[in-house]
């Protein structure tokens, strides 16, 4: 657990059997704890949409992902990350931060993203083939974007990468290493928030700080009021940096690999670049190497797929398995670059769906558009079955994406 296919891009054979015969299964997590495992689209969507059920924290006696309680619950429930995660305070936090991640705001950032992608690709081309697309483009691109958005120095990106990996670790780091990295990360971001408070700039954290200070003057602060507390600002910066490092960076490499492993897909996009947006959505749906899935803590008995799941259970929602459900998608195991509508669950759904999905979509579209324009002859430098998964983290990815042109 999580299940994996024969190659880094293939779905596990067990998904189809589980959806058909055991859609509400029991699975042993890396920690040794047991959780309920969902693979059908309707079940996953219904549970993620239900505001009663949220991600576990250390307040819940929930199934742990990894030994010693690390790998999600301990992190999100610690003093390190104090974003309100339940009820009205969570919704107020989402409204406060989410308005800076609308599709309209991301469109305004698009020209700058395109220039950045062009510069990174030009540098890759200048260094010559073969190249590792993940190292040359997939990793640095979203890192530079999120660093600029938050006003943190991009030269610290190697430290951010280590802290992000520790944040998402299941088996890669020991509990002591994770604890140390988290303490360093909190100290760094706390100092950064304090520096922005002293000397504001034109970035997201400075804006959130200014708004919070204005509202404190009016008598409200923190998750129970309108503005964000210091801890919430720190947690917001940390969460966005983690998302900007691992998730989008990994998705860039996986998307390009999926489009190149059957080069007729790449050729179709070259012939019709208007398909870029739907191709990005289909890459998000088709990705089987998404990682662990979303956990939800069940605080009361609930019926799922005709089975009663008792209160106190931890449920793992496998979005990639649900995204391959033939009940929801015709030709679910075929990558259809023109698929529409495409209501995939990769970003979750409901009150806890991914806050930064407009940013991720814009980044993926910009990267794909720029690669098609700048490097139309791009191809994988190794057979697709030789691509290697990233191991030991909550999120999936590829270690390298060797390419030539």
Concise structural overview:
Helix content is 49%, strand content 8%.
Largest sheet: 4 strands, mixed
Number of helices: 15
Rg, Cα atoms, Å: 21 Å
| Helix fraction by DSSP (H/I, runs of at least 4) | 40-55%
CATH topology: Cytochrome p450
What is the H/E order? Answer: HEEHHHHEHHHHHHHHEEEEHHEE
Adjacency order of strands in the biggest sheet: 1-2-7-4
Low-pLDDT regions: 71-81, 219-224
Question: What is the tally of beta strands?
Answer: 9
**CATH C-level name:** Mainly Alpha
CATH architecture: Orthogonal Bundle
Task: Estimate the mean pLDDT confidence.
Answer: 89
Beta fraction: 5-15%
Structural overview:
- This protein is α+β, with helices and mostly antiparallel strands.
- It has a single domain, classed as Orthogonal Bundle (Cytochrome p450), CATH 1.10.630.10.
- Helices cover 49% and strands 8% of the residues.
- It has helices spanning 13-21, 41-49, 73-76, 87-98, 103-127, 133-138, 140-150, 157-167, 175-198, 204-217, 230-261, 263-271, 276-286, 319-322, 357-374; strands spanning 24-28, 34-38, 131-132, 294-297, 302-304, 307-309, 314-317, 379-380, 402-404.
- The chain has a 4-stranded mixed beta sheet.
- Helix 13 crosses helix 15 (357-374).
- The longest helix has 32 residues, at 230-261.
- It is globular, with a radius of gyration of 21 Å.
- It starts with 12 loop residues before the first helix and ends with a strand.
- This is Cytochrome P450.
- InterPro entries: Cyt_P450 (IPR001128), Cyt_P450_B (IPR002397), Cyt_P450_CS (IPR017972), Cyt_P450_sf (IPR036396).
């Amino acid at each position: 657990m999580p299940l994996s296919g024969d190659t880094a891009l293939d779905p596990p054979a067990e998904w189809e059997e589980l959806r058909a015969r055991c859609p509400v299964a029991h699975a042993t997590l890396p920690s040794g704890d047991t959780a309920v495992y969902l693979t059908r689209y309707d079940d996953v969507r219904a549970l993620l949409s239900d505001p009663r059920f949220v991600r576990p924290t250390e307040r819940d006696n929930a199934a742990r992902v990894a030994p010693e309680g690390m790998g999600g619950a301990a992190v999100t429930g610690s003093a390190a990350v104090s974003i309100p995660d339940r009820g009205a305070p969570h919704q107020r936090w989402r409204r406060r931060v989410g308005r800076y991640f609308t599709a309209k705001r991301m469109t305004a950032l698009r020209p700058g993203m395109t220039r950045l992608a062009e510069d990174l690709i030009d540098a890759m081309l200048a260094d010559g083939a073969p190249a590792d697309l993940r190292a040359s483009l997939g990793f640095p691109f979203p890192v530079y974007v999120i660093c600029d958005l938050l006003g943190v120095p991009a030269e610290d990106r190697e430290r951010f990468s280590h802290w992000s990996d520790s944040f998402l670790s299941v088996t890669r780091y020991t509990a002591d290493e994770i604890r140390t990295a988290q303490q360093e990360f909190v100290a760094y971001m706390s100092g950064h928030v304090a520096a922005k408070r002293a000397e504001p700039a034109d970035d997201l954290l400075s804006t959130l700080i200014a708004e919070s200070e204005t509202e404190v003057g009016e008598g409200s602060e923190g998750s129970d009021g309108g503005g964000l507390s210091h801890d919430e600002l720190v947690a917001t910066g940390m969460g966005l940096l983690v998302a900007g490092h691992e998730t989008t960076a990994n998705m860039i490499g996986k998307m390009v690999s999926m489009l190149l492993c059957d080069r007729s897909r790449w050729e179709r996009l070259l012939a019709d670049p208007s398909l870029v947006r739907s191709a990005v959505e289909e890459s998000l749906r088709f990705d089987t190497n998404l990682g662990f899935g979303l956990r939800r803590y069940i605080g009361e008995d609930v019926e799922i797929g005709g089975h009663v799941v008792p209160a106190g259970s931890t449920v793992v929602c496998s979005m990639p398995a649900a995204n391959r459900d033939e009940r929801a998608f015709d030709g679910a195991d075929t990558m259809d670059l023109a698929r529409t509508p495409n209501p995939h669950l990769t970003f979750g759904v409901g009150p806890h769906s991914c806050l930064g999905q407009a940013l991720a979509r814009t980044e993926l579209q910009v990267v794909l558009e720029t690669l098609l324009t700048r490097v139309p002859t791009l191809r994988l430098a190794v057979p697709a079955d030789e691509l290697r998964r990233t191991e030991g983290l909550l999120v999936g990815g590829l270690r390298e994406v060797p390419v030539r042109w």
